Each structure stands twice: as structure tokens, then as C-alpha cells.
Amino acid sequence: MASVFFTLLLLYATGVSGVPQLEPLNVTVLRGSEARFNISLSEAWYSMSWMLKTVLVLTINSGTGVSEHNRRFSVKNYSSADIYCWEFIIRDAWRNDSGDVSCGVQEKPTQTAQLFVQESGTVRIVGGNITVAQGHQAIVQCEASGWFPKPTVSWVVDGVMVDQNSYNSSSEALDSLYNSISLLTVRGVNSVQVKCLASVSALTTPLSSSIYLVVEPQDWTVLIAVVCSIGGFALLVLLILGIVFCCKRRKEAKSSYQKEMGTRSQIEMSGGAVGQRLGKENPAYVIDGQTSVTHSEFNDSGYIQTSYTKHFEIPDLVNGNQAANGHASAYNVLGVTGVRKHRHVTIV
User: Fold this and answer.
1) How far apart are alpha carbons 90 and 115 in whole angstroms?
2) Contact 54, 7 (CB under 8 A)
3) What is the pLDDT of residues 301-311, one digit of tens each?
């Protein structure tokens, strides 16, 4: 009805007379709904015909009235004393109805408009509500099936429209209908409502499907278990490496000791008389009564080489000088007849 008044107002404003005016020139409707067109003219007429694409579907005669060729098509008269106006109605529009809608009034030029019939399918978020750990990401999938033309899919998270660059959508045609899939990645910060919207231009309100993204606090138990497992494994590796290192050091030390002992044995076996000497002579010893030492008695280091024991007999001074010193009786009492002096060479 509003379109009829708009057409009449347009005719009054333009002052057009004689030429039929068809409004609107483009109509888009959903399959199964009605499509309406209005024809208006200021001059008297006696014959009017309506065609859908190339098929005559309805005629009007000013004297006999309306002749319907199909019950899906009808007209309403909104004429007044000054303007003739008729509304053409297509009920239960089909996809095949899309095309030209034409109206001819007597010898006047035929007026043509365009009809577009769309189809709305279904929309759903796959899997229902999603539970995710705090800080983790969740991928939400939305499916829009059975649409024509290709639907526009959008997302709303917690009441805020999501930017188109934040999700990916793809479509494919099947039996002249389109199926679309859209994927949205949501980071779990707080529990929110996630809504998927699908729409075509004929829909006044997009179809939607919604779920709840439930965010659970971070489970530190699993993290601690993982850290402990990694730490225990690292400690075991370090322990094994330490044992291997100690065994290697012990083996090297043993090998070095055996090598050193073998070298000493070779030296002792090849040393001869030098190896048999276990000490050094004492150069401080001088034989009693010897005032000088010949050069042959010193070795290269300046030590005396003489190594013998010499006995000296002290004369029996007691018996020989008994009268002179008058101590014979004392010596006899002591029983001392002689003293033997021993000198030994100390080898250092």
C-alpha cells in the first residue's frame, strides 16, 4: 500500500501525463513470498496487460474487469478521480519467476521492471558450546546451507561485530544453491556468546546461530606435571653424564699410573749398577790420621768415594805407663786392657 501512495506522489510531483509509470523497477523477494508492482497513468485507458518474462499472466479491461490466467497473479485498484493506479501482485514467488515483469497499456510504450527471487537456507554452528582453557584458542565453525545467491556470513562475539579480516569463509554451489563455511578463531579470555549470522539482501533480519564459549581457569596441575617430568629427565641425563665422566677420568688415571709404573720398571731394568745404588756416601767422613784426600777419592760431585771400615788399636797405655801415672790399679780394677775404635762410612 505504501508503494502505491509513493507512486501517486511521484506522479503529482513530476506532472507526468499519458505515459504509464511502473514502480519499483527492481524487486527482490524471498522464495514463497509476494512481489508487488504498481502502474500509474493520468489518461483514461480501456485495456491493460501484465506479463512475467514472455508469458501473459493477467489482463484488465475497463469495461469487463480482470481476467486471471493464473491464480498466483492478481491486481488491486487504487485509482482516484485524477490518477489511475493498479497494483500487480505475484504470490508464492518461485526461483523461476526471476526476470522481466512488463505492463502494457493500449498503444502506450510497454514498461518493464526486474524481479529477483532469493532463497534463504539454514545456518548453524557445528558442535555446540565449546569449553577452552584460559588463554587458549578455540576454532568455531559455522555452516550456511541451501542459499541463493551466495550468503553473506558474519560473526558477533560478546555483542561486538567481528572484523571480516578475522575469519575465513568459502562457498560452493550444489544444485543451484550455495553452501558456505566460515571459520572463526577465538582466544579464551572470558566466557562469551559467539553468534554466526547468514543473510541475503531479501532478508530484513539475518538468520543466526549462537553458542557459548566457556573459558575455564588454567589447570596448573598438568603444567607442573610436565615441568617435573622434564626436570626429572634432565636430572637423569646429567647423572648419567656425570657417571660416564667419572668413569672416564678414573680409566685415564689408571692408564696413566700403569704407564708411569711401566716406565719406572724399564728405567730400573736398564739402569745397571747405578740402579742398584740406593743412597749417597757421606762426604763429611774422614779417616783418622788422614790429612789429605787424593783426587781419585772424590767423585764428580765432590764426595769421598772411600767406603770401608778401619780398626784402630789403642795401645795398652794402662800397663805401659803404670808407674808414671800411678793409675794402674784403677785401670786394672775396671778391667780395661784396651779400647777398639770403629769408624763407619755413612752412605746418604
Assistant:
1) 10
2) no
3) 454 444 444 44
pLDDT in tens, 241-252: 889 888 888 887
* Angle, CA 46 vertex, CA 42 and CA 49 arms, to 5°: 95
The answer to whether 34 touches 89, Cβ cutoff 8 Å, is yes
- Report residue 71 as a C-alpha cell: 491464480
Residue 171 pairs in a beta bridge with: 180
Query: Which tens digits make up the pLDDT trace of 217-238?
Result: 876 676 677 788 888 888 888 8
DSSP annotation string for 117-162: EEB--EEEETTSSEEEETT-EEEEEEEEEEEBSPPEEEEEETTEEP
The pTM of this model reads 0.57
Question: Are the C-beta atoms of 18 and 109 separated by less than 8 Å?
Answer: no
CA 326 to chain centre: 123
* Other residues' Cβ atoms within 10 Å of the Cβ of residue 96: 9
